[in-house]
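Structure, all two chains, one model.
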Amino acid sequence: MIELAHLQILSAGLFAIGTYGVLARRSAVLILMSIELMLNAVNINLVGYAAFVDFDEATRSFGQVLVIFVITIAAAELALAIAIILRLYRNRSTVNVDEIDLMKW
Amino acid sequence: MGPTMIGQGTEASLLVDIVFWVLAVSAIVSAFAVVQIRDLFRAALFLIMTLLSIAGMFILLRAEFLAAVQVLIYVGAISVLIIFAILMTGDVEEGSPSHSMRIPVAILSTLFGALAIFVSVSTDWNLLEPAIAAGQVSADAVEGVYSNTIPVIAKLLIRDFVLVFEIASVLLLAAVIGALALIREG
C-alpha cells in the first residue's frame, strides 16, 4: 500500500532533480521547466498530506486547496517569465543565462 | 478498519500498488530526462510526461478534481506556453548545454534531496490511519470527505479562504497585464 513516506521520497527526488535543472542548465526556458518540476514536487507533498495526515474536520482537504493556489501562482509566474524571455531574446538574441551578464560586476 | 485509506481494504490494493510504482518511476525518469536531454523540445515532451504521471498520482490520492485541473492547466496550457517559448527563441537544434559547474551542482542537489528525505521520514507525522484505529476519528467522516472532495474544496475556497481566492484573481490579472506590457512593441 502507499504510505506517506513513499510520496515524500518521490517529492524530494523530483524537487532535487528540479534544483539540479535550475542550477546546471543554461537555457532560461529549461530553467522555467525545472521550476515547474519543483512546484509539482511540492504539490505531490501537499496532496499526500491532505490524504494521510490527521487534520481537523473543517480543514481536512486544506492541502488540496493549497495546491489550487500553487497552480494559479505557477501559471501567473510562467506567463510573466515567458514574456520576459521573449523580450530578452528580442534584445540580446540569446536566452542562455550565462551570456546575460549585464548586471554582473 | 473501513476502506478509508488509499488502496486498503479493497481487492484492488495490489493494483493500486502497481499503478503507484509505475507512475512514480515514470515521473522520476521523465523528470531526469527533462534536466539531462540536450534537445529542448524533447525535454518539454518529457515534462508533459512527468505532469501526466503526477495527475495520475493525484487520482490515486483521491484528489480527482486536482487531477483534472492538472491536466487542463499544466498539460493543456503551461506546456503549450513552454513549447511556444522554445520555438520562439529558436535554439532548438543548439539545445541547452550544461555548464562547467554541473558536477558540484549534482552533488549539492543530491545532498539536498537526501536531507529532505531524511527530515520528512524521521518527522513524527500525526497520521490519519492510527487515529482511525484508535477511534479518535470516525472512519465514516473521513470517507465522507474523500469520496467527494469537490464540495469540501469549494467550501474552503469560497468561505474560509475567500480573501486569498480574490487576491489570486487579482494576481492573475496583474500577471496578464504585466506580460502584455512587457511584450508590447516600443
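The radius of gyration of chain A is 18 Å.
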